[in-house]
Write a structure and sequence with these properties.
Structural class: alpha/beta
Helix content: 25-40%
Order of helices and strands: EHEHEHEHEHEEHEEEEEEEEHEEEHH
CATH class of the largest domain: Alpha Beta
Strand content: 25-35%
Number of helices: 9
Oligomer: single chain
Largest sheet: 8 strands, mixed
CATH architecture of the largest domain: 3-Layer(bba) Sandwich
CATH superfamily of the largest domain: FAD/NAD(P)-binding domain
């Protein structure tokens, strides 16, 4: 038995859903196949921070594409909310990075200079100014960096709204329908192989997050592995936080409904998603250090998710050397941020075979080539 589509997507998270929405709106017949309940893996587990600033040196190549995605976000949110009538908790209040070290003055100037070098807005502010903006901050902070153009979104609400918008725009979504392998004929990918059928399409897109490498034939292009992140949600009725708050140990993300998310660990423990006492203790201690008023907060929820990490910690985007095969995976800690630009670039390639933002640095063939060099 064979199902036929113009485009099929393996993976129904925010990335897969956003691609499906873009392609459906472009008039393409799209099918999305997910091994579980769509939108319940990394897209559900994240914090929804929208920051193009790299967290470390490995993430610097992401800055241009992250800035491009950030610029698309207001339009992306507006379209999804208009199609579905659902609010996705988009907050454009910026972020505040709190510095506690005695060497804060030097740290501050370095931080701001780097941000400006990447073409990002950042402002050095005193401890007093930081506490005026966010009274919940620890009085012991030395200084802070305000990044006014950053934002956050309720990623759970956004993911469900994007999937609903894709459905309403004509995409077909198949929950509990994982794919086992690529269906190929010579140098062409004809679609995907499921348990009892072949799914045929002109274009096949792998967007299955940390499960991508479990699809037979994919590992050579997308050797992604799960990076576990543990998080918790707090509620403190008397405490008000407006912006995303950072320290060198934790981030706090306020939601419109009054919750405050605290996260997140990075652990390489396979597909294990259990919440551990040690991680919760560490997160709570860091959260209370950053905002002492959280000591009296109620812990509402704890959870763990699996981010898709690639060997160089960068996304895997674009065409493979099999005609008709595209990748949109390996987004690691930037999947929520990069959803709009990923969807647009994949749609551009499917409909025009060219893209408006250079994605060469993220091409899937880089791992296959590295493997050949190692074995040569």
């Amino acid at each position: 038995m064979t199902k036929k589509f113009d485009t099929i997507i393996a993976g129904g998270g925010l990335i897969g859903g956003a691609i499906a929405l873009e392609l459906a709106l472009a008039g393409t017949r799209v099918g999305v196949f997910d091994r579980g309940e769509p939108g319940r893996e990394a897209s559900w587990a994240g914090a929804g921070i929208l920051s193009p600033a790299p967290e470390n040196a490995a993430a610097i190549p992401l800055v241009p594409i992250a800035k491009a995605s950030m610029a698309l976000y207001p339009e992306f949110v507006s379209r999804v909310e208009e199609i579905t009538g659902q609010d996705v908790g988009f907050r454009t209040k910026g972020t505040l990075d709190a510095l506690f070290s005695r060497d804060a003055a030097r740290e501050l100037s370095t931080h701001v200079a780097l941000q400006h070098g990447w073409g990002l807005r950042a402002e050095a502010i005193s401890a007093e100014e930081a506490r005026e903006l966010e009274p919940a901050l620890n009085p012991d902070l030395e200084a802070a960096v305000l990044r006014p153009d950053e934002a956050s979104v309720d990623n759970r609400s956004l993911t469900q709204a994007v999937l609903e918008a894709a459905r309403k725009s004509g995409a077909e979504i198949f929950p509990g329908r994982g794919t086992q392998g690529l269906w190929r004929d010579g140098n062409r990918c004809l679609g995907l192989l499921a348990e009892e059928e072949r799914i045929s399409a002109e274009w096949t897109i792998v967007a299955a997050g940390c499960f991508s490498a479990n699809i037979a034939g994919v590992d050579v292009y997308a050797p992604v592995r799960p990076a576990k992140g543990q998080m918790l949600s707090l509620r403190a009725e008397e405490l008000k936080i407006e912006r995303v708050l950072w320290s060198d140990k934790i981030y706090l993300v306020p939601r419109n409904d009054g919750r405050i998310l605290a996260g997140a660990t990075v652990e390489y423990v396979g597909f294990d998603k259990k919440v551990t006492a040690g991680a919760v203790e560490k997160l709570l201690a860091a959260a209370i250090e950053l905002a002492p008023g959280l000591a009296g907060a109620r812990v509402e929820e704890t959870w763990a998710g699996l981010r898709p990490d690639s060997p160089d910690h960068l996304p895997i985007l674009g065409p493979a050397d099999l005609d008709g095969l595209l990748f949109a995976t390996g987004h690691f800690r930037s999947g929520i941020l990069l959803a709009p630009i990923t969807a647009r670039l994949i749609r551009e390639w499917v409909t025009q075979q060219r893209v408006s933002v250079d994605w060469e640095r993220f091409r899937p063939l880089r791992f296959a080539e590295a493997r050949k060099e190692t074995t040569a």
